[in-house]
Description:
alpha+beta
Amino acid sequence: xxxxxxxxxxxxxxxxxxxxxxxxxxxxxxxxxxxxxxxxxxxxxxxxxxxxxxxxxxxxxxxxxxxxxxxxxxxxxxxxxxxxxxxxxxxxxxxxxxxxxx
Length: 102
């Protein structure tokens, strides 16, 4: 198999196949890549302004768990696993998990 890269459009997130079943670890990893901001963005969570930079994601562990159809412990373990392998760096703020440096 040849190595290289492919373009993957973020529109895949809206395809009925993407979230039709419980996510695999590989699918969750790709989901994080697709959710990462491609430019700085400001979001508001419960009235709190949160500025996200390029490559950051502003999702809570609970919202990722629901999206991936996992329990919270599995999601938290997966994020920790990615972090120990230097695939992501994440910080938990007041009820939001900001995933940095994807």
